[in-house]
């Protein structure tokens, strides 16, 4: 289905110590070939899985991590159960060294159990690791996470922050879709998800086009990249991405950052609140609220509140931490009534 997907553009020669704004501010995905090829973590992985694990253990102290464990039958695809009432895996807490031992124990199995540690803060899990394996973001302060496991498939989802994902050990296949492909990806529940983000219900390995016919349209907009150790990919905010880890040991380090101030909450809260308060109104009222959102949010400009004295604009003023704090307090009063 996705064999004809467009290849994501590649660039080489980017300085990992000073990432350029034309990458960090891009609205299109790009592969950064060899960006972290000089990381000691990458070099250790190219020697062998054993060397990679030994390198990780250098920085391991006693960290407990969240892990997802699935039976061999799920073939690495962490997903829902048949009726979407639960999941096909167990979420557990374990020591990182135990997880590494499990991956090593099953490394030669034709169908190993699926083992996955995702979105774990590097500085907490492996203190000192970034002293030898890091990127330069200037004044930006990204959240840096590590992802470890064996062969896994992570369903298409989107993230609010921009993202640079660096393949340190193993190979990964990324399949990306622009945000406007939302309706063609058949997204599952918003408030009951395998790992926090809503995911596509389509199995990319064998898409069921009778159940999900519009996925054929999404596939025509897919962009794909297969990354080797040392490669990285920039994934813009809100782009849907499906990720496959292809080897018996895979390690990825990613950097998330937002282009908005910290006081701005995630818009998913606004979406959920709007679903609760607007979606089921009579059509005439929904249309009126559509116009209000268009006027005050999606097409707002300097003229929106120009008729109101500046000192009286309050929430209609340019947003800052004080206004956000006041709005949050008012919302909490409403929600806690």
From TrEMBL:
Q: Which InterPro entries match?
A: Cupin_8, JmjC_dom, RmlC-like_jellyroll
| PROSITE patterns in alphabetical order | JMJC
Which segments does the entry list as coiled coil? none
Name of one Pfam family that matches = Cupin_8
- Give residue ranges for domain JmjC: 101-272
Instruction: Report the SUPFAM superfamilies cross-referenced here.
Output: Clavaminate synthase-like
The protein in question is named: Cupin
Q: Which organism is it from?
A: Steroidobacter agaridevorans
């Amino acid at each position: 289905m996705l064999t004809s997907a467009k290849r994501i553009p590649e660039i080489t020669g980017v300085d990992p110590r000073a990432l350029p704004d034309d990458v960090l501010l891009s609205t299109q995905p790009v592969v950064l070939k060899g960006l972290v090829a000089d990381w000691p973590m990458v070099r250790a992985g190219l020697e062998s899985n054993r060397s990679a694990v030994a390198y990780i253990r250098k920085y391991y102290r006693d960290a407990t991590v969240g892990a997802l464990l699935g039976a061999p039958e799920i073939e690495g695809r962490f997903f829902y159960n048949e009726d979407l009432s639960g999941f096909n895996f167990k979420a557990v807490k374990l020591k990182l060294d135990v997880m590494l031992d499990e991956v090593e124990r099953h490394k030669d199995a034709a169908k190993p159990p699926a083992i996955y540690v995702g979105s774990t803060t590097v500085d907490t899990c492996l203190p000192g690791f970034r002293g030898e394996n890091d990127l330069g973001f200037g004044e930006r302060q990204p959240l840096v996470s590590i992802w470890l496991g064996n062969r896994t498939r992570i369903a298409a989802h989107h993230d609010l922050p921009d993202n640079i994902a660096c393949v340190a050990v193993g190979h990964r296949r990324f399949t990306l879709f622009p945000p406007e492909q939302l309706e063609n990806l058949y997204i599952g529940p918003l408030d009951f998800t395998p790992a926090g983000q809503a995911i596509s219900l389509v199995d990319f390995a064998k898409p069921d086009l009778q159940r999900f016919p519009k996925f054929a349209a999404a596939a025509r907009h897919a962009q794909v990249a297969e990354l080797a150790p040392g490669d990285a990919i920039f994934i813009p905010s809100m782009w849907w991405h499906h990720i496959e880890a292809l080897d018996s040991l895979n390690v990825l380090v990613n950097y998330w950052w937002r282009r908005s101030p910290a006081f701005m909450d995630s818009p998913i809260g606004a979406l959920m609140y709007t679903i609760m308060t607007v979606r089921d109104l009579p059509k005439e009222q929904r249309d009126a609220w559509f116009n209000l959102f268009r006027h005050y949010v999606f097409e707002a400009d300097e003229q929106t509140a120009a008729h109101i004295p500046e000192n009286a604009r309050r929430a209609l003023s340019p947003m800052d931490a004080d206004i956000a704090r006041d709005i949050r307090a008012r919302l909490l009063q409403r929600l806690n009534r």
